[in-house]
Design brief:
Layout lengths: L7 E3 L5 E3 L13 H8 L3 H15 L4 E11 L28 H13 L4 E6 L6 H16 L3 E5 L7 H8 L3 E3 L6 H4 L8 H13 L3 E3 L2 E3 L5 H12 L7 E6 L16 H14 L4 E4 L8 H9 L4 E4 L11 H11 L2 E2 L1
Parallel strand pairs: 3-4, 3-11, 3-12, 4-5, 5-6, 6-7, 8-9, 9-10, 10-11
Antiparallel strand pairs: 1-2
Helix pairs in contact: 1-8, 2-9, 3-4, 4-5, 8-9, 9-10
Bound molecules: S-adenosylmethionine, 6-(5-methyl-2-OXO-imidazolidin-4-yl)-hexanoic acid and iron/sulfur cluster.
The site of S-adenosylmethionine has 17 residues, from loops.
């Protein structure tokens, strides 16, 4: 767990302000306990604080929209306990080869026509081998040439791979920390927390935007939810994009059957992410399919300002784009 460097002061009006060390204003740290204190605020006070931070940094009625495509589905060698694409779990997901360039371009064109501003390509790999990376570089270049922002999530990167992605025109790399360091070993054993941090460092070092967040509802404690946010918020530069996923329970995975999380606790997590990472896009990511419109609206009020758009995430269902359009219209949200 990270050391506290500066305390968070919770004012009587429920707004917190971080004291900044007099010797180095750049070293600001959120203590896990301070983030837990946010979670423990009365709901209305937490929402007020999150909205205040959100409105100070963003247009509160604008939501960024990304479309996700699984360019390589299933057969993954890793053991992430939530994931239907791990080869070792018996789920309905089949192992498929890498998609062809023209199929990916066609999907990106459709996403663009539907109003997506970013196209995210996901692969069920521990990490790309060089022979896998080369066709993906071509996909990135073509999607970029269409005027879309590009994002990829391909697993762990080795030396030199981030540079190749940057040269191909990659704008964002998604690689999640998933949970707090203390809970991580309960969920994944085939890669370490440090492996993930190392990949994020490689992405940062070539100036690709970082997209990193985690999954809520895996049986972690509130302290551990706060611990994940502390890891992200305390990075030298917090991720530009922070996906907060609600666990989508898939039969055959070890986490299937986990007690489901109260959706209001998920809303609190979004609010705490907004407050601790004021200038990051917070993405209401997996799990919308199980949420009412009311809960999704609360997530937007809590500061979520990005979603995945389109009826499929990687292998699981997402709300229909037409439903999202209706919800945005009801809430007066502009899609960006
Ligand atoms: N294989 C690459 C990796 O793990 O880095 C990229 C794809 S992986 C599916 C991307 C992320 O999706 C995971 O890190 C995890 O946070 C999220 N994810 C996977 N399965 C999920 C599930 N059942 N519910 C919620 N999020 C999930
Ligand atoms: C992220 O944080 N969530 C997305 C994206 N990054 C790649 C993936 C969610 C996957 C949900 C399970 C599935 O559809 O397979
Ligand atoms: Fe593989 Fe990624 Fe799924 Fe883990 S989350 S099993 S690395 S596809």
């Amino acid at each position: 767990m990270l050391e506290s460097i500066s305390p968070v002061v919770i004012n009587t009006d429920g707004l917190s302000s971080k004291a900044i060390s007099s010797c180095d204003a750049s070293i600001e740290r959120w203590r896990v306990a301070d983030i837990v204190a946010l979670f423990e605020l009365p709901f209305s006070d937490l929402m007020y604080q999150a909205q205040t931070v959100h409105r100070a940094n963003f247009d509160a009625n604008a939501v960024q929209v990304s479309t996700l495509l699984s360019i390589k589905t299933g057969g993954c060698s890793e053991d992430c306990g939530y994931c239907p694409q791990a080869a070792r779990y018996h789920t309905e997901v089949e192992d498929e080869p890498l998609m062809q360039l023209d199929e990916v371009v066609a999907a990106a064109q459709e996403a663009k026509a539907n109003g997506a501003s970013r196209f995210c390509m996901g692969a069920a790999w521990r990490g790309p081998k060089q022979r896998d990376l080369e066709p993906v570089l071509k996909m990135i270049a073509e999607v970029k040439a269409m005027g879309l922002e590009t994002c990829a999530t391909l697993g762990m990167l080795k030396d030199g791979q981030a540079e190749q992605l940057k040269d191909a025109g990659l704008d964002y790399y998604n690689h999640n920390l998933d949970t707090a360091p203390e809970f991580y070993g309960d969920v994944i054993s085939t890669r370490t927390y440090q492996d993930r941090l190392d990949t994020l460092d490689r992405v940062r070092s070539v100036d690709i935007n970082v997209c990193s967040g985690g999954i809520i509802g895996m049986g972690e404690s509130r302290n551990q939810r706060a611990g994940l946010l502390a890891q992200l918020a305390n990075m030298e530069r917090p991720p530009e994009s922070v996906p907060i996923n609600l666990l989508t329970q898939v039969e055959g995975t070890p986490l299937h059957g986990t007690d489901s999380l109260d959706h209001l606790e998920f809303v609190r997590t979004i609010a705490a992410a907004r407050i601790t990472m004021p200038t990051s896009y917070v993405r209401l990511s997996a799990g919308r399919q199980s949420m009412s419109e009311g809960i999704q609206a609360l997530c937007f009020l809590a500061g979520a300002n990005s979603i995945f758009y389109g009826e499929k995430l990687l292998t699981t269902a997402n709300p229909e784009a037409s439903e999202d359009k209706k919800l945005f219209a009801k809430l007066g949200i502009n899609q960006i």
